[in-house]
Structures are given as structure tokens and as C-alpha cells.
Write a structure and sequence with these properties.
single chain; 4 helices
Length: about 170
């Protein structure tokens, strides 16, 4: 099967218009069932991000927005500052390493309601853990979840910086 070619900056501008204040793309040309001026893309049911099919390939709208605004493909992941994956306003996008993107993600609620960075040990104590360089680093074991949470936040603030979700 023939591999789709990479989209160029000129082709992107010919096919679509990006509206930085709304984060939406609109068609400049008739494309499949779309007409000029119609909003381009569909929201992915699983991840909630917007995908746009161009030249036989699916593109994430946030990556297209970066390409549209800078003229080059992002070298890192694109993070949505407000953690809403369908909000592709230019002011809401920033390049991020994987660990920064993870730090800015919505925390999964544990089954027993523990805060982010805190786990319950087999001995009934609470462990504080921080994701660093592709693995978890244990920050210590504490008698209460609040103590473990404080230890996590003390280590996470300087490590994650502006990407930290508390």
C-alpha cells in the first residue's frame, strides 16, 4: 500500500484556514462532502481531540494548528494548557515533553479516593510517588494521605513547574 505523503505548509494553507482565537479550522475548498467555510474535523470519541483527514492521512488539529502558526511541525508533544483536548485555540497550546504533558493531565481518581501522587501500601501506610524519567520515584512512606500529598507537592512543584496540576 502506498504511504501518504507529508502535508506541506502551502497545501495546508490552500486547503484550510485556522482561526487562532477559536481553535477551529474551516475548509477553503470543497473536499469530500465539505464545502468552503464549513468547520473541518471530527472529535475522536476516545481521546476527545479533533482529527482532520487530509491527503489520505489523519492529522491531529492541535498539531496542524502548531504547523499553521509556526511553519514547522512540532518537535515535541502539544499540550493543551486547560486540559481540554478539543480546545485548539493558539493561546491554549504549548510544546511539551511527554512527562510535562503527563503532569498536566487530569488525574485518574483512585478506587479509594487518594489524591494524585499518593498510593496506599500493603502495610496500610501512604506512599508519595513522582513520575521522573520514565519511572516512578518513591518520595517516602507516611502515616496519613495528607502527609504523603504534601511530600508529593513539595517535590512536584519544582520538577513540573507550570505543568503541575494540583
Amino acid at each position: 500500500m502506498k504511504r501518504p505523503r507529508e502535508l506541506t505548509y502551502e497545501e495546508l494553507h490552500r486547503l484550510l484556514t485556522y482561526h487562532p482565537n477559536t481553535g477551529l479550522f474551516t475548509w477553503n475548498v470543497s473536499w469530500s462532502a465539505a464545502k468552503p467555510g464549513q468547520t473541518a474535523g471530527n472529535t475522536c470519541r476516545i481521546r476527545g481531540c479533533v482529527q482532520i483527514q487530509l491527503l489520505g492521512r489523519n492529522y491531529m488539529a492541535h498539531r496542524l494548528a502548531w504547523f499553521w502558526m509556526t511553519g514547522s511541525w512540532p518537535s515535541k508533544m502539544i499540550d493543551h494548557i486547560n486540559r481540554v483536548p478539543s480546545d485548539n485555540r493558539w493561546a491554549n497550546l504549548r510544546e511539551a515533553e511527554n512527562w510535562q504533558n503527563v503532569a498536566n493531565s487530569t488525574a485518574r481518581q483512585s478506587k479509594i479516593g487518594l489524591p494524585r501522587g499518593v498510593t496506599l501500601t500493603r502495610t496500610g501506610k501512604f506512599s508519595a510517588k513522582l513520575w521522573r524519567r520514565g519511572r516512578y520515584v518513591c518520595l517516602g512512606t507516611y502515616t496519613t494521605a495528607e502527609e504523603a500529598r504534601s511530600a508529593y507537592l513539595a517535590a512536584a512543584r519544582p520538577h513540573y513547574g507550570e505543568f503541575l496540576v494540583t
